[in-house]
Design a protein that fits this description.
heterodimer, A: mainly alpha, TorD-like, about 65% helix, about 0% strand, B: mainly alpha, about 75% helix
Chain lengths: ~200, ~60
């Protein structure tokens, strides 16, 4: 635990928060939360916010976590995001952004990640355009590499911003989602906040 | 606007709209890092395709 927190010590609190929210979203989108994570979410303190959006979304997520059964959430995750054959809702961002079949965003993303010193962990089967991978990349840029905000903004606006809205809406609107509705709601509020903050640069 | 005031306004904006919940988010991420490692194996086993005993048996029957 101390090891996790050590590298963010010198960062201002709002940057620590950003990194941690990206980490949390990466975790929730990578795999269904286990009982310990649900419990932690349920007991989370409120986010103080002048503007209601993210504070309310966070509270709804905490309430959903308190009421959730880990086994049911695992089933929901596999049913909606994994499935047999085509997933009901895909977590791969390219699916929301490709307009022409000859576009190869994954190749461009891979080379951009490599230029930023990141790559797929050995043994990871998911392609890099998975929303969890992109959130984890952002966490790295903020907390570990402490990259310039303009560099963060460039990556965010190219790879996350175009897909964030459609992806979160698809999750929120799907009939088979329950726990992941408030997850998508919080993701949308947080990523929208990020976008607005990047626009102030 | 100078670089400094721009940075300050972005900071105030983030704190005002709520990304200031550093302690809250940190506690959750830290807790989750510890717990997710123990469940890593079972999680991996349940993701995507994996050959079960049944599938292996099926493959055996198709071999000539």
């Amino acid at each position: 635990m101390t090891e996790v927190l050590k590298f963010v010590e010198t960062l201002p609190p709002e940057e620590v928060a950003r990194a941690n929210f990206y980490g949390l979203l990466a975790r929730l989108f990578y795999a269904p939360p286990d009982a310990a994570l649900l419990e932690a979410l349920a007991g989370a303190e409120e986010i103080e916010a002048e503007d209601g959006g993210i504070g309310e979304a966070w509270q709804r997520l905490a309430q959903a976590a308190a009421a959730a059964d880990p086994e049911a959430v695992r089933e929901e995750y596999e049913n909606v995001f994994v499935g047999t054959g085509k997933a009901a809702v895909t977590l791969y961002t390219s699916a929301y952004t490709i307009r022409y079949s000859n576009e190869v965003p994954l190749v461009a993303l891979r080379s951009e990640l490599a230029a930023l010193g990141l790559g797929r962990r050995e043994g990871a089967a998911e392609p890099e355009d998975h929303i969890a991978a992109l959130c984890d990349a952002m966490r790295h840029f903020v907390a570990e590499q402490k990259r310039d905000l303009h560099e963060q903004a460039r990556f965010f606006s190219r790879w996350i911003a175009p897909a964030a809205g459609p992806l979160c809406n698809a999750i929120a609107q799907h009939a088979a989602t329950d726990f992941y509705k408030p997850v998508a709601g919080f993701a949308k509020a947080f990523l929208h906040l990020e976008q607005s903050a990047f626009e102030m640069l | 606007m100078t670089e400094r005031t721009k940075r300050l306004s972005r900071r105030n904006f983030l704190l005002a709209v709520g990304a200031g919940g550093a302690a809250t988010a940190a506690a959750i991420v830290a807790k989750n890092t510890g717990s997710s490692q123990t469940s890593d194996k079972s999680k991996r086993a349940s993701r995507g395709y994996h050959a079960t005993e049944h599938v292996n048996n099926y493959y055996r029957t198709t071999k000539v």
